[in-house]
Amino acid sequence: MRRTPLVSVLAGLALALTACGGDGDGDTTTAGSGGGELTGRGPITLVSGKDRSGNMQKMVDGWNAAHPNETVRIIELPDEPNDQRQQMIQNATTRSDAYTVLNLDVVWTAEFAANRWLAELPKNQLDTAKLLPATVTTGEYRGRLYAMPLTSDSGLLFYRTDLLKKAGVSEPPKTWAEMWDACDKVKKLPEGKGVDCYLTEVGKTEGLTVTAAEAINSTGGNIVDASGKPAVNTPQAKEGVDFLVNAIKDGRMPKAALTLDGEGGRRHFQAGKLLFHRQWPYQYGLANTDDGSSKVVGKFAVAPIPGPNGPGAANLGGHNYAISAFAKNKATALDFIKYMADEKQQKANSLATSQAPTVAALYDDPEMIKKYPYLPTLKAAIQNAKSRPVVVRYGDVTAAIQGSVYDALGGKTPTGQAMTDLQNKLTELTTP
Fold first, then answer.
1. Under a CB-based contact definition with an 8 Å cutoff, are residues 218 and 416 in contact?
2. How far apart are CA 161 and CA 49, in angstroms?
3. Its family (predicted)?
4. Most CB contacts within 10 A, which of 25, 127, 369, 377?
5. Are the beta carbons of 202 and 249 closer than 8 angstroms?
6. CA-based angle 405:410:411, to the nearest 5?
7. pLDDT by 10-residue block (mean), the chain, 432 residues
């Protein structure tokens, strides 16, 4: 993502101030230090990406009815994560108190905490023991809690059960080769005409970083290794990206995918024009809505994403609630986060939206499983999922990944050269 000049300058100043102040082990009473008392009560704001379900407002209405003097107002940001992140950074670098509770993508925690844009959360007041362990780490930075996991996510393969059955395919594919074979069989059916084989996010957005990470991790590679060093100039990384390149080149994935975001893909699947779709769990509820908006109601199921030799490595997604270091009424904000993170609220939200909860027990809840039979599959996927690069300069890193991989997908740059270029870019961005 390319920052505006103002954001770049202010973010640079914030980084400089962070470097001067260390990692937050000193005085924690200054606003923006990431620590100090969470004091102040009164109205607050909840800053979030677009709420497609409308359920977030219902949950906020419940809070507001019980707390008339501490009401919450939702500030809805653009749908694209890159744009959400940019607006949150603009608010933080100007030290504005307009944003109180931030609904953060799980990979933003390190960047926001390192820059002291978040208030540290008291671990003794938030019950993280009941959450899936993989989700808890997404809210931590250097052993401290800065964000409370509210929803989790992992990539799943949505597939048309009706078309596979007619084509004589009894099980969802576990490998890329099996997926292509199933596509070929469906294409021979009269019902398969005009149906695209496969779609995942490959437009130049955050979704492409997710897609690239999943493809590379599925072949045994990494974007950044365990020591934090770039590792994309490898045969495994090239194999993963080549899978995506060849999918477009061979017509397995429509070229229109290069301009579609996640919502565009969802609409394509719900219109009945797609056989296999790598997507987040939120699509399940929308695609099964019997209001005329979906042509695939009761005609699809979900499975683990495939890989080269078996199930692939899904990406760990989700959203966490954090408190802006510059906000007023932080005590109210903390109580509101507790309210939203409560098991009862998480269950209600999941039932209404099909968003994945972070409370582990809900994956074994009979009512939940009855509505979402795939929950055991999703739980396993989350527990085994891999994260996108956890780096302080995440915005620059994801922009570099998107740029290099997109050039390879569009045929502008050979995959090998694209990976070499990306290795060089990431080395500059991750070197202290």
1. no
2. 32
3. Belongs to the bacterial solute-binding protein 1 family.
4. 377
5. no
6. 100
7. 39 40 36 64 96 92 98 95 94 97 96 97 96 95 96 95 98 98 97 96 94 97 92 96 97 92 92 97 91 96 96 95 98 98 97 94 96 92 91 93 97 97 96 84
Question: Domains in the chain and their CATH numbers?
Answer: 5-153+316-384 (3.40.190.10), 156-315+390-430 (3.40.190.10)
SS3 labels along the chain: CCCCHHHHHHHHHHHHHHHHHCCCCCCCCCCCCCCCCCCCCCCEEEEECCCCCCHHHHHHHHHHHHCCCCCEEEEECCCCHHHHHHHHHHHHHCCCCCCCEEEEEHHHHHHHHHCCCECCCCHHHCCCCCECHHHHHHHEECCEECCEEEEEEECEEEEEHHHHHHCCCCCCCCEHHHHHHHHHHHHCCHHHCCCEEEECCCCCCHHHHHHHHHHHHHCCCCCECCCCCECCCCHHHHHHHHHHHHHHHCCCCCHHHHHCCHHHHHHHHHCCCEEEEEECCHHHHHHCCCCCCCCCCCCEEEECCEECCCECCCEEEEEEEEEECCCCCHHHHHHHHHHHHCHHHHHHHHHHHCCEECEHHHHHCHHHHHHCCCHHHHHHHHHHCECCCCCCCHHHHHHHHHHHHHHHHCCCCCHHHHHHHHHHHHHHHHCC
Q: Quote the CA–CA distance of 125 and 129 in Å, as a whole number.
A: 11
339 by Cβ neighbours in 10 Å (0-12 / 13-18 / 19+) ranks as middle
Residue 413 near residue 407, CB atoms below 8 Å: yes
Contact 183/192 with Cβ under 8 angstroms?
no
